Amino acid sequence: MSHESGNGRTASVALGFALGALVGAGVALLLAPRTGKDTRQRLADAGERLGDAARKQVEHAGEIAHDIKRNAQSTVDEARRGFEQGAARVRTELSSR
Question: 3-state secondary structure string, 46-57?
Fold first, then answer.
């Protein structure tokens, strides 16, 4: 799975939006005229939704980090092969003189 550099920013914005929405919902619950038991249950539900959203974002961030690591390793391997090939050419050139 390949990701552009903007995906990390998009994930951050999405996480910020989700957190803001859940915090806003929690404040609304606290300010709404409800019984204590009902308010506590609604806050517990909102907390559960927040936890689920956070877990999904962390999982997504882990996937992006894995992709970045894999791409970086591939680039390092390719650079190493190019360097080794260039060094071999130089050695061959120097030994033929």
Answer: HHHHHHHHHHHH
Tokens of 64: 């992006």
Residue whose entry in the numeric block shows the structure tokens 């249950």 = 41
d(CA 18, CA 96): 66
What is the residue type of 79? Answer: A
Q: Which amino acid is at 47?
A: G
- Reported pTM: 0.50
Q: Phi and psi (nearest 5°) for 96?
A: -85, -5
Q: Where are the domains of the chain?
A: 6-95
- pLDDT digit string, tens, across residues 51-79: 898 889 889 999 999 999 999 999 999 99
DSSP, residue by residue, 2-71:
---THHHHHHHHHHHHHHHHHHHHHHHHHHS---HHHHHHHHHHHHHHHHHHHHHHHHHHHHHHHHHHHH
